[in-house]
Design goal:
The protein is built from 5 helices and 2 strands, in the order αααββαα. By secondary structure, it is mainly alpha-helical. 4% of the residues are buried.
């Protein structure tokens, strides 16, 4: 993993290299917080001895749907209705975003946009300066 931005830029240009190694030749790194149980290591060694090589790659979409639902940021409302489908942002995410504003206050148009796209706007702990409650 890159430790600084210069190294990150230089490694991004290199092609991916895959090196196959026998499971028995792998040595655990004592700094690794996760260690594999002996039973799992033994299974891997048996697979290697039998010449079994499996690589499972799970692809996950990187669109808005995946991010919002996986992280629990929002709820997709009317998913099967092309004309009404939309995402509503969960209460905790709205509150967290507002807390990050610091001293900055949203305009009334921005407030309306946030209100209209909040999943449960009546449950959100709005800041004292918030004026657009319940208006569309």
């Amino acid at each position: 993993m890159a430790t600084d931005s210069k190294e990150a830029v230089s490694t991004a240009d290199r092609p991916l290299t895959v090196v196959y190694k026998a499971a028995a030749s792998l040595v655990p790194d004592p700094r690794n917080a996760r260690t594999h149980p002996k039973k799992q290591t033994a299974r891997s060694q048996r697979r290697d001895e039998l010449g079994i090589r499996k690589l499972r790659i799970v692809l996950i979409g990187l669109g808005v749907n995946t991010v919002l639902s996986t992280l629990g940021l929002g709820f997709k409302k009317f998913p099967r209705d092309e004309k009404r489908v939309r995402w509503e942002i969960n209460q905790w995410a709205v509150e967290a975003a507002l807390a990050r504003l610091g001293d900055r206050q949203l305009t009334t148009a921005e407030q309306r946009e946030v209100w209209n796209n909040s999943r449960s706007p009546h449950k959100v702990a709005w800041p004292d300066w918030w004026t657009e409650k319940g208006r569309s």
